[in-house]
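Request: Give me one sample?
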Amino acid sequence: MIIWVMGLLLIASFICFVIYAMKGGNLTIGFFILTIVWTLVYFLGVPFGIGKPFNVIEETFAQPALTYGSTIIQIICGAWFGRVLVDTGIAASISYRTAKVGEKSPVLATICTALVTCLIFTSAYGVGSAIAIGVILFPILARLGVPKRVAVPVFTLSIGAAMWINSVLFVQFAAFYQDYKSPDGQVIEWGGHYLRFGIAAMIVQMIGVIVFILINAKAIKNGKPYEVGDPDERNVEIPQVPIWTYLLPVVPVALSIIFQWDAVPALFLASIIAFLGTGHMKTYKGFVNILNSTAKTAIGDIGSLIIMLLVLRFFQHAAVTVMADFGPALTSVVPNNEMILAIAVCILAPLALFRGPLELYGAGSAVISILMGMGVFNAWFLFALLVVPSMTCISSCVTQSWNMWAVEYNELEPKTFLKNGVPVYWLCTFPIMGLASLLLF
């Protein structure tokens, strides 16, 4: 009887969290409350022989946070390199010159804009970087007459495509699986095994973006020029940087693939080369100033994210502990056929929108904990199962910070943005999940 009571309490709290997340509730607070509730539910069953007592402070709150240090370091280094690309003028120069090259052909210019946005965000990360690039690209697209309903999804979908090989986002998703004991002993980690899939997934999504542009080619060609954003931001002075520095966004990924470098030294080396190549190391004082300013801004950009991820780690440990006792019951209810689950997730991919049950940075965090609690699935399968809809959803969900900025900056109706962006990401989910089955698990 008590097991049923516990199950109902867990389901009720999960449903409340789903509603809370989808209504835009603060995820840090939501995860913390859910951690406490699930821990209390677990201890409810201890007197009845379900589970066993453990040191909550040490095992749920202390150790998960302390063992998360390496992931935080990777996130900080990635955010710092992204800020370096922006503050040294490399990202702005790439964006401006690429868009200007295709000015005589609006369709070509839009495709070039998509490609260069993807290139920059293979290493850059965060809403600050997105704004810095967007205030350059959107006015150019506006002068070319590219409709807002096309320009905004192209920009956000291209950023989303780059996230497949962005180490900052990878380590965030990998943290969900850090404590999972895969039956075959596999571990989720950054490296060649993941990158061969990540690169393929990025290419697929960019093909989807280009097809979207070509479908709207007539509207782009017949579009009338308009103005967007603050007039003072439309004539941004574009810094002059050496052409060879345009390759720097892909340097960290190249070092990981070719030399099997860890993300941290790869990002550090790329940052130093960026400072050197743009003349910011000519004087000691100038180098110290930009070093300090980029680091300060980067850490400020991700401060709230890091706190949320730490609280998420608390919940992950509590959830895995609780669900371990429900594993046998779940196995008889949840299909353990990987193909069936993968197809179902692709069909239901829009449920990742608004932090729903297929979005890891939302209600999906509880879903993956339940699946991990069963202890029967391959680690890379579980990774793909929720990361694929979560990653593609980043491109078109208005709860994503840079997407919301782009929508507001262009004064585009959110429903128009969703109407144009969601079909593209949804259709991309199917081939990307297929690639995952071939290259990941």
Q: What stands out?
A: Residues 2-439 form one domain. The chain is about 70% helix and 0% strand. The radius of gyration is 22 Å. The chain has a mean pLDDT of 87.
